[in-house]
Amino acid sequence: MPSGPIMAKEFWIGDVQAGAHDGAEVELKGWIKRSRGSNKIRFVVLRDSTGTIQCVAKRDVIGDDSFESLKGALIEASLILKGTVNVDERAPGGHELIVTSAEVIGAVNPETPFPITESAMEAADGGETEFLLDNRHLYLRTGRMTDMLKIRSSVFGAIHSYFRGRDFTEYQAPNFVAGAVEGGSTLFEVPYFGRKAYLTQSWQLYAEAAMPALERLYTIAPSFRAEKSRTRRHLDRVLACRDGSCMGIKR
Fold it and tell me: Is the torsion defined by CA of 101, 106, 112, 113 positive or negative?
C-alpha cells in the first residue's frame, strides 16, 4: 500500500468523459462501482465524485499479480488505474480507459453491508431507518445520496450568491443559547460545562443585535425544536435560510 505524502489527484473522471484527455495517458484514482469479466479480461466501472468510466484491464498487459488483485477487489475498493483514454461510443459516457497498470490501494471487508440492498435493510434490527443510520458512511456513497448532497450544495450556493449580490453579510448566530427564544416547552436542554444550555430555536435575538452594525444580513443555519410527536420521524431540526435588514430609523 502506498505510503508517504498524500497522493493528489491530477485527473478527474468528469474531465475525461468531457473529452479533455482523448488519446492521452492518465492516472485515475477512485472506487469500484461495478466489476465483471473472465480470467483474461476485467471490465471495471470506476467512480469518483465527478462521474464514472469503464476501465478495461487485460491479464497479459497488467500482469498476473495485478490482475488477480483487481479480480478479487470488491465493490467500493479504492484503485489507482493508469492507461490510455479511448473514445468509444459503445462505452458508457463515450469514453473508456485501456488500463496499462492497476493497483488496489484500499481493500474492502467482505462483511461490509455494501451494496445496500432491500433484503439487508429488512433483515436488520430496527428496520430500514436504523440500518441506514448505522451505515450512514456507506449510504452516502450511493448515487441517490450523492445527487442529493450535490443538489443541496447548489441550492446553498445560489442562496449565498443572491444575498451577497445584494450586499448582505452572512451572520452565524450561536447554536448554544442560555434561554428560550420561542417557547420554553420546546427547548433541547444540554449539559454545558456544569451549567445548563439549550440548542437554539432561532437566530432572531442575535440577528436583532447585529442589525444595527451590519444593516443587511442573512444566515443558513439550523434551528432545533423539541416538539412532541406521535410519529416515528420527528421534525426536531430545521435548516433554514433567514434574512433581516434595518430599513430605516424611526424616532
Answer: negative
The cell for 240 is: 433554514
- What pLDDT shows up at residue 6? 55
Alpha-carbon gap, residue 33 to 36, rounded angstroms: 11
Question: Where do the structural domains in the chain lie, given as residue ranges?
Answer: 13-106, 156-245
Distance CA 134, CA 131 (A): 5
* CB 81, CB 55: distance < 8 Å: yes
Spatial neighbors of 158 by CB under 8 A, at least 6 apart, are: none
Question: 156-245: what fold?
Answer: BirA Bifunctional Protein; domain 2 (3.30.930)
Direct distance between the N- and C-terminal alpha carbons of the chain, in angstroms, rounded to an integer: 71
pLDDT at 230 (0 to 100): 80
- Torsion angle (degrees, nearest 10) of CA 73, 76, 78, 83: 80
Grid cell in block for residue 175: 447554536
